[in-house]
Each structure stands twice: as C-alpha cells, then as structure tokens.
C-alpha cells in the first residue's frame, strides 16, 4: 500500500476508535434507560451500528498489520513504471491523455485517478518505461497507450 493509503486508514481508525466508539456506547446506554430491550428500536440500532464499527476497526487493523507500505518518493526515478508511481499515458489512436496513480486494491478509486495494481491497465504498465507503447485489453477491444511520463509523487 502507498504511504498516503496507510495514512488514510490510520486516520479512519483514529476516528472510529476515538469518536464513533464513545458515541455508540453513549447511545446504547441511553437506549437501555428507555426500558424493555426486546422492543427497543434505538437499542437494537445502536448495537447494530456498534457491530459494524467494530468490524471495520478489525478490518483496518488487519490491513495495516499485514501491509507493506511503499513511499515512492524515496525511490530513485528511473522512468520505469512501478507500484505507487503516477503515470501519464496517451491513447495512440486518439491522442487522449490520462493520468493514473498505481495503488493497492484497497486504495483504488477511479474518480481520483487511482487504479489498482491488479487492474488490466496497471498490469500492462508495470515494468515498462517512458516512451514505450503498451497494449491493454479492454471490454471494447485492444487499446494501445504510450507512456508519456512516470512521476514519483
């Protein structure tokens, strides 16, 4: 995972443990005071939310404990596409340029131009260098991209 991805998970974990847990505990305590727990919707909703938050906390802790964090800014620039780099590519046929950062599966978000290292585009780009042309199999057919620039951001 990238350094930014690791930091984002740590922030989410801090929020869940420091803010959400106490709020949910308070909501459960207040719901208990309302009486009969069998028919207490507030109590059941708070307990369900507590289960979801605790599951997310365990999930984040497991990811962070097993993650290998890579800070691409500390790696010498060689012009080669590696995990964590930001890559400008141009469609050979149309000339349209796009920029992607290659990240771990959990960090991938196409809306912010972060693609998973296991995506077809990333797999085609990894190991290639600036100026090379790569073929990417897409649902619409084979597309050729030229690697315009590789950045270590």
Automatic annotation (TrEMBL):
Residues 1-69 form the Transcription elongation factor GreA/GreB N-terminal domain. One of its GO terms (molecular function) is DNA binding. Keywords: DNA-binding, Elongation factor, Protein biosynthesis, Transcription, Transcription regulation. Signal peptide: none annotated. The keyword Cell membrane does not apply. SUPFAM superfamilies: FKBP-like, GreA transcript cleavage protein, N-terminal domain. Residues 78-151 form the Transcription elongation factor GreA/GreB C-terminal domain. GO terms for biological process: DNA-templated transcription elongation; regulation of DNA-templated transcription elongation. The keyword Repeat does not apply. It comes from the Bacteria. Transmembrane segments: none annotated. Pfam families: GreA_GreB, GreA_GreB_N. PANTHER family: TRANSCRIPTION ELONGATION FACTOR GREA. Belongs to the GreA/GreB family. Necessary for efficient RNA polymerase transcription elongation past template-encoded arresting sites. The arresting sites in DNA have the property of trapping a certain fraction of elongating RNA polymerases that pass through, resulting in locked ternary complexes. Cleavage of the nascent transcript by cleavage factors such as GreA or GreB allows the resumption of elongation from the new 3'terminus. GreA releases sequences of 2 to 3 nucleotides. NCBIfam families: greA, PRK00226.1-2, PRK00226.1-4, PRK00226.1-5. This is Transcription elongation factor GreA. The gene is greA.
């Amino acid at each position: 995972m990238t350094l930014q991805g690791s930091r984002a998970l740590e922030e989410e974990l801090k929020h869940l443990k420091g803010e959400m847990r106490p709020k949910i505990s308070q909501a459960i305590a207040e719901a208990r005071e309302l009486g009969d727990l069998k028919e207490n919707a507030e109590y059941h909703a708070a307990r369900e939310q507590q289960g979801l938050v605790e599951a997310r906390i365990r999930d984040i802790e497991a990811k962070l404990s097993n993650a290998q964090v890579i800070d691409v800014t500390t790696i010498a620039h060689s012009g080669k596409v590696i995990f964590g780099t930001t890559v400008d590519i141009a469609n050979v046929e149309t000339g349209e340029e796009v920029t992607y950062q290659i990240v771990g599966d959990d960090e991938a978000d196409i809306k912010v131009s972060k693609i998973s290292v296991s995506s077809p585009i990333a797999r085609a780009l990894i190991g290639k260098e600036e100026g090379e042309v790569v073929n990417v199999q897409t649902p619409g057919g084979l597309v050729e991209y030229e690697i315009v620039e590789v950045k270590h951001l």
